Amino acid sequence: MNLRYKILAFTFILLSFSLFSQKSDSTIQKNIKAKNAIFIEGFGSSASVLSLNYDRIVYQSKITRITVNVGVALFPISDPSNAAHKNVFYVYGFPVSGNLLFGKKKHYLEVGLGVSYSRGLEASFSSTGKSVFSQMLFFVPRVGYRFQRNQGGFFFRLGFTPLIMLEDYTYWQFQNTPHIKFFTPYAGICFGYSF
């Protein structure tokens, strides 16, 4: 299946959860005012160093919540073979995920499933000036802790987010170099604001 179709199908499934948000308990709806969050994640689901993310609660009950989030990662790297020119390239990624939260008030156990497209985690630089950057699609499960108050304010997440490669669109260009493994243990930490 083509990368575009995989990402579109996964996004459609995640966003379809919003249909269930109308069925949640009305008293819970009134108590939870902060359904949105914007945060910066270090490492984690983007398969990069830093990412900027948006998260939305789409369903809630007394002890469970379902959230969806999207993000973008951008990280500069330089060409080590061409120190004189100091060429700068960018690693970027696009994580999309759905999460299930268990807990009350502000402390939650968080489990989730996501995908992340990443370009540039691996790079090959040549003296001719031609550069090749990896393009990979990862499945990213998440298990961790989330702190999010019902009324909004400080937002925090810490989780185990292993990267499981679904597709490597450039493997043939990196056959003679060390390569990212199929399964890479990874973790992420997030700081942000909920509103």
Topology summary:
Layout: H1 3-16, H2 26-31, E1 36-43, E2 50-60, E3 64-78, E4 88-104, E5 107-125, E6 131-139, E7 142-148, E8 153-160, E9 163-168, E10 183-184, E11 187-194
Subunit arrangement of the protein: single chain
Helix run count: 2
Question: What is the percent of helical residues?
Answer: 10-25%
DSSP strand (E) fraction?
Answer: over 45%
What ranges have pLDDT less than 50 throughout 5 or more consecutive residues? 21-28
**Mean pLDDT figure:** 80
| Second CATH tier, the architecture | Beta Barrel
Class from secondary-structure proportions: mainly beta
- How is the biggest beta sheet arranged? 8 strands, antiparallel, barrel
Number of distinct beta strands = 11
Distance between the termini: 38 Å
Your description of this structure?
By secondary structure, the chain is mostly beta strands. The chain is 10% helix and 56% strand. It has helices spanning 3-16, 26-31, and strands at residues 36-43, 50-60, 64-78, 88-104, 107-125, 131-139, 142-148, 153-160, 163-168, 183-184, 187-194. A hairpin with a 4-residue loop joins strand 7 and strand 8.
Concise account of the structure shown:
It is built from two helices and eleven strands. With 195 residues, it is mainly beta.
Question: What distinguishing features does this structure have?
Answer:
2 helices; Porin; elongated; 195 residues; eight-stranded antiparallel β-barrel; mainly beta
